Request: fold
Amino acid sequence: MTADAQSNPLENMGRAAKDAAYALALLSAKEKNALLLSLADTLDERAEAILAANAKDLDAARASGMAESLMDRLALDPERLAGMAGDVRAVCALHDPVGEIIDGSLLDSGLSLMRRRVPLGVVAAIYEARPNVTVDVAALCLKTGNAVILRGGRETVHSNAALVEAIQACLTAHGLPEGAVQAIRSADRSLVSALLRLDAYVDMLIPRGGAGLHRLCREESRIPVITGGIGVCHIYVDESADQAKALHVVENAKIQRPSACNAVETLLVHRAVAPRFLPLLARHLEAFGTLLHAEGEAFAMLFAAVPDRAVPVEPGDYDKEWLSRDMNVKIVDSLDQALAHIRAHGTGHSEAILSENMALAERFVSSVDAAAVYVNASTRFTDGGQFGLGAEVAISTQKLHARGPMGLEALTTYKWIARGDYSIRA
Amino acid sequence: MTADAQSNPLENMGRAAKDAAYALALLSAKEKNALLLSLADTLDERAEAILAANAKDLDAARASGMAESLMDRLALDPERLAGMAGDVRAVCALHDPVGEIIDGSLLDSGLSLMRRRVPLGVVAAIYEARPNVTVDVAALCLKTGNAVILRGGRETVHSNAALVEAIQACLTAHGLPEGAVQAIRSADRSLVSALLRLDAYVDMLIPRGGAGLHRLCREESRIPVITGGIGVCHIYVDESADQAKALHVVENAKIQRPSACNAVETLLVHRAVAPRFLPLLARHLEAFGTLLHAEGEAFAMLFAAVPDRAVPVEPGDYDKEWLSRDMNVKIVDSLDQALAHIRAHGTGHSEAILSENMALAERFVSSVDAAAVYVNASTRFTDGGQFGLGAEVAISTQKLHARGPMGLEALTTYKWIARGDYSIRA
Reply:
């Protein structure tokens, strides 16, 4: 342990989490599910107290002038709280990956070797003012036998305290240490830095928030961090694409939920089909209030079709995660130009090609370096639920450990187990 | 790209590596093996020039008073160079994991989904003054389609320049960019910090060196880093262990290669067998010049058997990676005490129990949190070659991405590939 860790104000919290992790790692799937079921029941039973705590947060948020959209994410009501309990019950139904034998072999040395899947140990999560994330992350961590340290948005301090009290009451009732699920209750921002230095105890850090939080974690964290969630996603409309069908895919990728990280931000269109496709596109999207950002010929074509929904591209637009009904549209001469644009501006999240040309599509799939690559499908599918993972811990856009939607398996590691007969290395 | 990355003196190197990575990712296993075979041949052909460059490094090292053991690791001769070429040919024979379909499914949405194993992209390695590591890491990265940026010890600057020239000549002959394998040639230490900030281009950092280097990387790197290689390993001798056989396992774990990270540093002995086992141990190890560090009764028993090979434990000894013929010996009352000691002092590398009690052994296996856990075997087996991985990139003692010996698979990630029929998310 470093001197630095010893002077860390979160030292005790880290130690308690580590101790709890040893206990959690020994639980059977059945024991973990019993714990989660009782947690779901406890959330139902304590509804009144939890909603009262949430009301305090809402009052404070209203007084501080929080935006309506953020207030909505912060707000709980009986229905939402019941939904959270239901989500915990759904986690019970998922397969527990802990204990699986990943692979194994009998070695020449006589050793019987296997890799067993085990919990990571201690996970830390930093997230925004969304009380549902508190329960969601805690449930996923407990399901996989991990302890967790939570640092939610400071605007949810009362809600999170009530939720973590409920969780800790269940832990105690099951003979487990409260250190298994802990929340940093102080709004003191310096504690985020302290958390990032807690590498003596924490095995993985999951930031759930905007680009700024991810950058902070990447730059300052001594704990291995899963960064992601930032999506500048592209769709390339090849000259062979079915244009009528392409319109619906683009509409889905841009309009269904513009604020999602898997929404498309830039459409790349082959020059050969641009004169026909771009006016169709402009007129199709007009009804959805989309604003198209384009340059040169593309701008001229879009502007001619629907003048008030096309604006010139400005510097930096191709690197923007719009998170709105804005979309860049660019004409490219070839697949290679499309690939070059994606390499220059993509964030490695989700990229799609729309094409009837199988060889070209395969080249796109092999050449694009992203967590998810689509042929003739919307980028909106990048999601743990859609991919059949049952749960989503986060969406990773880095390449170590887990890439793309992270399910329960991403909360595990493995240990090598070798059994011998007083075997020695030759 | 951040403003910081733009002002990084290694910016061009990072960009060249990233560009090269796109080309390498498209190579077939056959093409990569052809490249590696020609690299092995080139090392043979250029032996004279490489040895001349190495001689310059050796002269400088000698003049600066480098220790003999370090000089030995720096030195090349015709046999060692031929061995390096042979190692490259051995890498050709390994299975290429790139392109494997890890898993897949047909989703309710109609999407055909699969995970394809792909190269990480750009790897960076920081290592000591060992020219063989230059070729080793480059060969493993090329085999898996990764570009690599190498930063070897500054004492090997001429050797590494000659080796990287040989590698780049092969790349050029195969129509591949030199950016695929680059070395930082300046001895300027500030470039290490610059490398650690190259996260816009580098996907994984592998430090191969002492605890100080690993700490520096963990604290400063913005690139995901694989830390490891530090081993405070334990063997617990349970009361049921066969004592005669146990002596040989302990001897192997301590003596075969004391400088290895998987050598044992502390022996934990059950109190019931200590009075018989410890004198046997002291006499058995006496011939190997082992110095035993112990406290209380353990010290008394060892000292009584072989007075000049036992010394009292000093503060901090239990946390020391001796890397020598020193070993701590401690009496414990139970498995739980042994586990508590390992939790307090272990580095998560390799831990062993010697026991005839299967239930106890299984409890040890489940309770110890380490990359490798052994029942009745020496800790010395923790090694990529011993585990049948064919190659060893590093030994990880962290839990993300890879744990324990890392083979070729640890140099890969995956991408999700989904094919639809203009599919949209409902």
